Amino acid sequence: MSLALYRKYRPGTFAEVKGQEHVTDPLRQALRSGRIHHAYLFSGPRGCGKTSSARILARSLNCEKGPTPDPCGECESCVALAPTGPGHLDVIEIDAASHGGVDDARDLRERAFFAPVSARYKIYIIDEAHMVTREGFNALLKLVEEPPPHLKFVFATTEPEKVIGTIKSRTHHYPFRLMPPATLRKLMEEILDAESVPYEPAALPLVVRAGAGSARDTLSILDQLLAGADESGITYQRAVSLLGYTDGDLLDEVVDAFAKRDGAAVFHAVHRVIEGGHDPRRFATDLLERFRDLVILSNVPEAAGSGLLDRPADEMERLQAQAASMGPAELTRAAEVFNAGLTEMRGATSPRLLLELMCARVLLPGADQGEAALLARLERLERGVAAGTLAAAPAPAAPSTPPPPSAPAPAVSAPAPAPQARAAARGADDWPTPVRPGSGAATPPPQPQPAQAPAPGTGPVQQMWPQVLEAIKNRQRVAWMILNAQGRLLGVEGNVVTVGFEKPGDVQGFLKGKRDEVVAAALGDVLGGTWRVEVVVGGSGPGPAGPATRGPAAPQPPAPQAATPPAPPAAPAPAPAAPERRPAPPSAPVATDETWPDAPTDDYDAPPPAPRAAPGPGLAAARSAARAAAQTGPRQSWPETVPGRTRRSSRPDDDVDPLNDDDADVSELTGMALIQRELGGQIIEEIDHS
């Protein structure tokens, strides 16, 4: 009857312990210097050497030549505590899973005070110490805190957080770790050479992966493969079929189909997996592991030489070709899709359906709206795999403009003031423009200009602008809302993109929130490189535009009119009736018929204002006639100089109050006599109302 490999090749000294040098070296130094503690706590995953190290520590303490870091292996204690030995009477191993109660702790406490039978120390190795109840730990607390000189404790556990703090604080804690894959592979090669068993190198990584860093689990799997091996030894195909892993050729086929976007090949492979009786979760896990290797290779081409990947040379060549065929962004997205799908598979009623949905998501990155999907599509465009399948959004066409209507002829020959000059003087406000009567009809509104072509260099940015807006939306939704509603792409010069807003306040708010940096970062995400965004005043609404302008557009000078020969003088004709006014468009200056007087009018001589008539066709003509009649009367002109101040005696019509005037003569007429003189009448009788 053969002995299990994990028992046959269990280490007997600290030097034979693999992959735990961070624990064995300090323990050996403590044994060498004689600074030995009374209680130790070994923690770590299963099968990493905790119990074996506890036995080695007991062997080193009770060796006749000890305490020593290297037991002799010849004395009674060393032989009894050897990996294949029967055990020693003074080294007691307790399984706390079945002896963790308070009664077991009390029994241990009563027997612990007895001296050892033949060894130097009486050592208790308590395995699975986290299974000891709180009452049991409390019963051991006094003994662990102040043990007799011949007593030592070694607690081994996989869950050190469950050991109460009062016990843990009285121990020396040594955490064990999982063994690295390279160390496990080297250990298996040594064992296979010692057993004289042939093997294929491609099968050992499968055993290491199945062992998951546990030396005991790895040796148990290796022992299982050895038991079923024939004269050819351990082969890759036998390891794949026994461990349930997906064949590497099938993984290569699926990855190549993903790279070529061959959905038929992908779903045929899934069908073969299900028909072969394999677990869909295992296939998804293996495919995720393959994507992990490809992601590392795409970012670190020298991963094989640096030890990041442990693969044979022929397999590394295939992996490098697969990594180059997909790209880092697409590989990362595929790994994320399968990782999320594995989480959804837990407890799923139809694992095959979820597996097929994961494959569909990898094949169709356009179905997602995230940044990873956008990068995957861009990589496919760069590699030419998806040429013609994803067309860029065309630039919006310039809106067609109707032909400008002909301007109406002016009523009189007097030249009208230039509307551009008035608009510039008024600051482009919306107040109506006054027009003198008889000076001519209101200037027709400016005709809309045809849409300008995009500025030079805006072609690539113009085509990718919808994707840029989507990237801005993913980064900062507020910046996307403002830019989508009010912003306008004006031009591109080098790596500087100019964005315009209609109002200066919008520009200040956009810059104050540092949203230009968000736009620059989004441009870098979509187009690559480093970009700078300049925000100016100009344009309205999102979309392409012409060259950027800082501030409102400068008024265009009026087009020169062709010189015409002067018309012969004609007899004066009556003023024609003013044409009926039509409402002007909102963007044009509104003309009014209000008259600005050239000189002050005499309020006493002017006729009373006519009652306001209801709006009608003849209202404008009636107003013009009344205004012309008013202008025919006597009018006063503005004085050349400001008249000086005179005394009351020189101006009899001065109506200044003499009591409040410093220059007035208080001896003049007052009261009724003053009223009679001023009114030019005769007062018959004064009525006393008192």
Tell me what you see in this structure.
- By secondary structure, the chain is an alpha/beta fold.
- Among the domains are: 173 residues, P-loop containing nucleotide triphosphate hydrolases (Rossmann fold), CATH 3.40.50.300; 185 residues, Zinc Finger, Delta Prime, domain 3; 79 residues, DnaA, N-terminal domain (GMP Synthetase, Chain A, domain 3, 2-Layer Sandwich), CATH 3.30.300.
- It has 27 helices and ten strands.
- The termini are far apart.
- The relative contact order is 0.05.
Tally of helical segments: 27
CATH architecture of the domain at 183-367: Up-down Bundle
Overall CATH class of the domain at 183-367:
Mainly Alpha
Low-confidence stretches: 385-456, 540-596, 599-606, 609-619, 633-638, 645-656, 658-667
Rg over CA atoms:
51 Å
Give the overall shape: flat
CATH topology of the domain at 183-367: Zinc Finger, Delta Prime, domain 3
Amino-to-carboxy terminus distance: 149 Å
Structural class: alpha/beta
Mean pLDDT: 74
Amount of helix: 40-55%
Kindly state the number of beta strands. 10
Strand order of the largest sheet: 2-3-4-1-5
Biggest sheet layout:
5 strands, parallel
User: What fraction strand?
Assistant: 5-15%
